[in-house]
Amino acid sequence: MSGHGQQLFDPEAPPGPAAAAREAPAVPAGAVEPEESGGPAGVLSIGALYDEVEGALASVFPRGRQLWVRGEIQSVSDQSGRSGHCYLDLVDPGEGERGPAARGRGVPVLKVKCWSRTWGPMRGALVKEGIELTEGMVVVLRGAINLYRPKGEIDFTLSELDVTALLGRLAAQRAALLRKLEAEGLLRRNAGVPVPDVALRVGLVASPGTEGYRDFLSQLTGSPFGFSVQVVPVKVQGRDAPGAVALAIRKLCRTDCDVLVVVRGGGSKADLTAFDTEVVARAIATATKPVWTGIGHTGDESLADIVAGRSYITPTECGHELVVRVGQWWEAKVGLPAAALARRVPALLADSQRRDTAARGQLTMATRNHLRLHRERLGRRAGGVVRQAPLGLAARQTGLRSVASRLGPRAQGHLTSEVERVRAWRRLLTAYDVDRQLERGYTLTVGADGRLLRSAREVAVGDEVVTRFADGTTRARVLGCEVREDRRAEKEEEQ
Q1: Does the predicted TM-score (pTM) go above 0.85?
Q2: Which of 18, 60, 116, 190 has its CA 20 to 30 A from that of 329?
Q3: pLDDT tens for residues 157-203?
Q4: By the 8 A CB rule, do 334 and 225 touch?
Q5: Cβ–Cβ < 8 Å for 225, 327
Q6: Alpha carbon distance 355, 365 (integer Å)
Q7: Distance from C-alpha of 276 to C-alpha of 280, rounded to nearest angstrom
Q8: Which strand ranges, in their side-by-side order, compose the sheet holding 291-295?
């Protein structure tokens, strides 16, 4: 053991004659004899090499020795749904921030395995305490060192996890986050966002189909009020849940909702970890709308509950409180005034009926007096009309005869004058008639497009022109064109 141990941990010293002489009395199992290999004595096979490594490990870490190791989880693979085992990669705290790219660059990695018989109860205990092993978490483990010969790896078999230390660390992190939010003025910021008295437009962040989702909506749909619910479906557990919940809250803040509600039914503490994250707490604390939460069961209080404007122990209680709030407003603004009005209506109706009866009596008497008075006035005026009608009619007839005698001659004279005007216009129009001018020997020349040609400048050599006579038309092509400049000067002077 000693000779081979020194050779194993001193690779710079090749096996020489002295070493061969020392090792000759005891050739280790698996060593190849010189006659068989043709090489120097003491050359090890792979199996013998691992025997030596196991021997060296056993000398430092006796079999069964349990060690406590502290490290940061670089990766985790929970095979609970398949083999039931769990595999972790641990690095020294702080080294995990360098990411997977740092592997193979001098960062020591300890591969940890936990068999199903150990991992099953351990995982149940973690879930009960609300702990989920994630990358970046620093843990303290107890187990034993092993050599995994098929891969030539030294690994660590997990047998115990220090949950107390882990819980204390998580509690310290939670307390530090609360202090940080309080220092930034975010811890009770959303509590100062006013809630409308009639919060009927509700923005809901939940996982549709879950029990918490149904419990919350059943309170609203079972109420007599017309709630309008805008749902943003999200995952409420798992690695992606915190980001999805925060994004949904920010999205609903841009809508016209009166209040935002985040609900999640009961479960283990591990199932509720999404609502204990900083990203969700900040999204609620900085929301421009009032945020209510109904997460988990009685006794559960997450960071989301602490920073929310109001928190309730269950989704059912949260929905019930919304209904109660609207019901209180309805009772104060509608129900009580309506009840008071209902009590006063009979007396008001009786008083109105008495006033109506008295008014009808007064109106009847006044109407009769007015009818009598107008009847007397009408009688007097009718008598006057009877007396004055013959005289007025005779005067009107005389005036009408005088007007009729003057109207006939004037109408006849006016008619004769207008007839002469029409004849004069007709003679003038006839003098300017195109056909009459053509009959007098004039012609009318137009271009091929029908445009009237008034000047020689409007015609170019080669153009086709149409000349109209009284008895027909001719078409010609222009061979030459002469413009009289003196005529042009005369026109310019006239203008």
Answers
A1: no
A2: 190
A3: 888 887 666 666 666 677 777 788 778 887 788 888 998 988 999 99
A4: no
A5: yes
A6: 16
A7: 7
A8: 228-233, 201-206, 259-264, 291-295, 310-312
Spatial separation of the C-alpha atoms in residues 174 and 305, rounded to whole Å: 13
| 61 in Cβ contact with 147 (< 8 Å) | no
Residue pair 205/247 in contact by the 8 Å Cβ criterion: no
The interaxial angle of helices 278-285 and 241-253, nearest 10 deg, is 10
Contact 139, 161 (CB under 8 A): yes
Residue 49 DSSP class = H
- CA distances to 427, 452, 472 from 434, rounded to whole Å, are 14, 13, 13
Contact 425, 431 (CB under 8 A): no
- Measured CA to CA, the distance from residue 460 to residue 331 in angstroms comes to 96
Distance, CA of 138 to CA of 169 (rounded, Å): 9
* Length of the chain measured in residues: 495
Q: Is the CB of residue 469 less than 8 Å from the CB of residue 492?
A: no
- Confirm if 72 and 93 have CB atoms less than 8 A apart: yes
283, two tokens: 């999204």
Q: So what's the pLDDT on residue 490?
A: 66
Residue 322's pLDDT is what? 93
Strand partners, 312: 294
Q: What value does the CA radius of gyration of the chain take, rounded to a whole number of Å?
A: 56
Residue 238 predicted with pLDDT over 80:
no
The whole-chain average pLDDT of the chain stands at 80
DSSP 8-state assignment for residue 452: B
Reported as type and span, the H/E element at residue 385 is: helix 336-431
Q: Distance between alpha carbon 378 and the CA centroid of its chain, in Å? A: 79
Alpha-carbon distance of 357 to 363, in angstroms, equals: 10
Residue 138 near residue 72 (C-beta atoms within 8 A): yes
In the numeric block, the tokens 């609300």 are attached to 130
**Mean pLDDT value across residues 299-309:** 80
Classified as helix, coil or strand, 380 is helix
- Which residues 6+ apart lie within 8 Å of 268 measured at CB? 127, 128, 130
Give the bridge partners for 157, in sequence order: 113, 144
Tokens 């008598």 belong to residue? 383
Q: In what order do the strands lie in the sheet with 464-469?
A: 444-447, 464-469, 472-477
Structure tokens, 177 = 């986050």
The secondary element (H helix, E strand) that includes residue 67 is strand 67-78
Amino acid at 73: I
Residue 288: per-residue pLDDT? 92
Helix (H) or strand (E) holding 166: helix 163-183
Q: In 3D, which of 278, 280, 318, 277 has the Cα closest to residue 296?
A: 318
C-alpha to C-alpha distance for 456 and 61, rounded to whole angstroms: 125
* Least confident segment among 285-294, 448-457, 478-487: 478-487
